[in-house]
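agent: user wants the structure for DNA-binding response regulator from Methylobacterium currus. delegating to structure tool.
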Amino acid sequence: MAAELVHVVDDDPAMRDSLAFLLETSGFGVRLYETGTDLLASAATLASGCVLTDIRMPGIDGLDLIRRLREAGHALPIIVMTGHGDIPLAVEAMKRGACDFIEKPFDDEVLLGALRTALSPGRTAKAANPTVQDFLQRVGTLSERERQVLDRLVAGATSKEIGRALDISPRTVEIYRAKLMAKTQAPTLQDLVRRAVLAGLA
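agent: tool returned. relaying tokens verbatim.
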């Protein structure tokens, strides 16, 4: 059986080399592209696999790349790599059709797990996904204030910004954030945002 192919798009040569080594030693096939333009130029060969792209790149950035691939009819799963604090960009990427995002610097196993999920033949539709339904049920247990904090977190607001909007202290925001993450069983803010986007809450 042929190795699953990952199309890596990143303008950082060191990052491309590092990802190529990790993916090849983990059993994936790899194709490397320096820019989104390079990937689009090879679009005719994108019959299988998964696209792993940085979100901030010169020229065609990750968001524009997703849009162009989808407009061209490519249905390959797309995972975006974001920098710290790029939650709004990650949300926008998923709205445009990315299936997942991971935040740099990331643990190797987190990336490999995301790729395996994206490439799995049994990827379920969002609405039918039991993990999405479970998340929505848990969101339903949040208090009104916790839900307000959740909505603003998913929009990319900081604790200070949320505090100003809700007229509470940043420390109080942190308390609400800890409570809502416990109730939704989201281990990290990244995971919380991912689940919220998949559930249609963003």
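agent: one observation worth passing along. DSSP finds ten helices and five strands in the chain.
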